[in-house]
Write a structure and sequence with these properties.
Layout (H helix, E strand, L loop, with lengths): L1 E4 L3 H12 L6 E4 L15 H14 L14 H14 L5 E5 L3 H10 L10 E5 L5 E2 L5 E2 L9 H7 L4 E2 L2 H17 L3 E4 L5 E4 L5 H6 L6 E2 H11 L6 H13 L3 E4 L10 E4 L5 H4 L9
Parallel strand pairs: 1-2, 1-3, 3-4
Antiparallel strand pairs: 4-7, 5-6, 8-9, 10-12, 11-12
């Protein structure tokens, strides 16, 4: 059994799950890229893949991860996966997906590459399913890491083979997304992915920018914590920089340097001190 997940936190999570249920023991494979943002055209070609890699590197400038992002190649990961299940004909793949665009887009990217293994690829799509949280309350998770490890033992009963129909339809859906080549993709329910404009998350960012100077990293953190439809920190920071370049946000410091090295405020704002009348100034 080989488990596929789409978020780094889920690798250790699956380790905890396997400790609780030995029947789920197996290798955990991580697909690292976030196919819910960025260019998708011709990713089956070297030129298309390198164009996407260059896009990530540009966005990653000044990030804590370094400018060399992405430091991985999911194509090689899948190549090794295919070799393993080709050699071991009794091996199964279990794909774990939460109800979010990140996981679903990763699934669509995988499908054309796993078509030859119909019947040996299982899917666990935990969409619109109730789980129990740490406080004992029922909730509907969007991400696998929101689910307690012990709840996964129950969830395994939902595993089913990817159907022949899905092998026919889902690669077409990936082709549609690639040809559309929107910069942002969101989940509208089920497995329906809709393309959106580059500025889709800008409103969420602006909500967290005030008339007072604050660290760009604070705006980033507040945005990520408060937004309902989640995306990664690199993309959000890239959009914040674009808002600065568009004149919608003011900046002190150099946005080409580290994220922590510049402050922002909403464009046209006056500080509280500057807004005070002269006779109310300290010492007047």
């Amino acid at each position: 059994m080989i488990h596929i997940v789409f978020n780094e936190s889920e690798v250790s999570l699956m380790g905890q799950v396997q400790e609780l249920d030995e029947t789920l023991a197996g290798e955990v494979v991580l697909i690292r890229d976030d196919f819910a943002v960025g260019p998708l055209q011709q990713l089956d070609t070297e030129e298309g893949w390198q164009a996407r890699t260059a896009w990530w590197k540009n966005l990653s400038q000044g990030s804590p991860y370094g400018d060399a992002q992405p430091g991985f190649d999911d194509r090689e990961t899948v190549k090794q996966l295919v070799e393993k299940i080709t050699e071991n004909t009794s091996e199964e793949i279990w794909i774990w997906m939460g109800q979010n665009q990140h996981d679903v887009c990763g699934y669509y990217w995988l499908m054309p590459q796993l078509r030859a293994f119909q019947g040996r690829v299982m899917i666990l799509y935990l969409n619109n399913l109730p789980f129990i949280n740490e406080k004992g309350h029922i909730f509907y998770p969007s991400w696998l890491h929101e689910i307690q490890p012990k709840e996964f033992v129950k969830a395994k009963r939902l595993a089913r083979p990817v159907t022949l129909s899905e092998y026919e339809i889902d690669p077409d859906e990936w082709r549609r997304l690639s040809e559309e080549n929107a910069m942002v993709r969101i989940l509208e329910g089920g497995k329906k992915i809709a393309g959106k404009e580059d500025s889709y998350y800008d409103t969420e960012i602006v909500k967290n920018i005030t008339g007072e100077w604050q660290k760009a990293t604070r705006v980033l953190s507040n945005t990520l914590n408060r937004m309902k439809i989640k995306t990664g920190d690199i993309f959000i920071m890239a959009r914040l920089k674009q808002l600065i370049l568009d004149g919608k946000v003011e900046v002190t410091g150099d946005i080409q340097k580290a994220w922590k090295d510049f402050d922002v405020r909403i464009a046209g704002a006056k500080s509280k001190e500057a807004a005070l009348p002269e006779d109310s100034a300290i010492g007047a």
